[in-house]
Amino acid sequence: MKIHPIPEARKFHAFLFPDMHSAMAAGAGLMHSRLQPCAIRLYDGPETARLIKRVLGIDREGAYLVFGFDGPEAIVDLQMEKACAVCRAAGPKEDLGSESGESWWQNRYKFFYPPYMFHMPQAFGTLDTVATFSNIENVYWAMKHAVEENFPDATFIGHFSHWYDWGCMLYARFIFEKAPEDPAAAAALYNRVWDLAIRAAIREGGVINEHHGVGLKLGRLMKELYGPAMKVLEGIKKQLDPENIMNPGKMGFKGV
């Protein structure tokens, strides 16, 4: 746990971009500029239309990008000035200003409350992955196509969070308005979506999971991600845990 003093200032700003590609270029530009945002979120077109409209009341087409800085006010203001310049150079559709950014911060938890996000009898899942800036858009489109082409009844939405100087993390979500009533059929549907979407991400340079964990559910895909290197991981596991008593069966380590 880290404990930090309450910052002297915390400020946010939002832009609407014509598409996800231009918004991603702006977000990558922020990170490549060595700025230090306290938060960045980029919502794809469907999630902008679905959630930004519902939560923030912004009824626009495009990709919503919001970011903020905190710390000493003079440093916050300087970083915000530089960040806005980067975004304006990337060709936004609309500068939504600090008011929209502050509104996002104040309402950020509402995104996960009914009726804004998921609710019964919907069936849904969160597929989180991470990739470099050179691959992350390909990962997004591959996952989107895998879900929408194989499951016409599903909706695919996503936003990008956890930004680094080399890439960012994608929260991809699939939503079925109504799940199969049979529990076994529902579980089979759920697992098939995961298999197709995660394999699509791996093919384009993504990983199985960014931080929600591999565990038992996704361990079956570890060898597909790491290939021959999985033997190295198994060897390390065996040396550290020769009796296989530490979370047996998780992360694809079967009997190791």
UniProtKB/TrEMBL annotation:
The keyword Lipid metabolism does not apply. SUPFAM superfamilies: FAD-linked oxidases, C-terminal domain (SSF55103). InterPro entries: Alkyl-DHAP_Synthase, FAD-bd_oxidored_4_C, FAD-linked_Oxase-like_C, Vanillyl_alc_oxidase_C-sub2. Keywords: FAD, Flavoprotein. Residues 6-251 form the FAD-binding oxidoreductase/transferase type 4 C-terminal domain. The keyword Flavoprotein applies. GO terms for molecular function: alkylglycerone-phosphate synthase activity; flavin adenine dinucleotide binding. One of its GO terms (biological process) is lipid biosynthetic process. This is FAD-binding oxidoreductase/transferase type 4 C-terminal domain-containing protein.
